[in-house]
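Morning, I've got a small favour to ask if you have a moment. I'm working through a protein record and want to make sense of it properly. The fold is given in discrete form, as structure tokens running alongside the sequence. Can you walk me through what the tokens say about the fold? Thanks so much in advance, here it is:
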Amino acid sequence: MVKVPLLPHALALIEKYQVHPKASNERRLFPVISNERMNGYLKEIADICGITKNLTFHLARHTFATTITLSNGVPIESVSSMLGHNSIRTTQIYAKVIEDKLSKDMFDLRDKMKPPSQL
């Protein structure tokens, strides 16, 4: 078990589902559905929104790990714990994806530090 302070959106979802019968019966925060069904729902959402990328639950976890946490400075140890990884090596796979962002960030920093005469 790990204690994680929750963001307001997460708290709102917990409140929304706290009276859901399936979640209550299974003593969970949310009703649990199969990965296959979840991916089906994500495909429907993508179709409605005109998204051509194949959305999956795995992609959502990957996006959370890279775009939402690591790219915003959350330490990899914290991300590893949030994802439930037993080894930080598993989480380091996600960290490789943000190397491109690191490169872009350094180029942006270089441009910001140029004297006005060089811009």
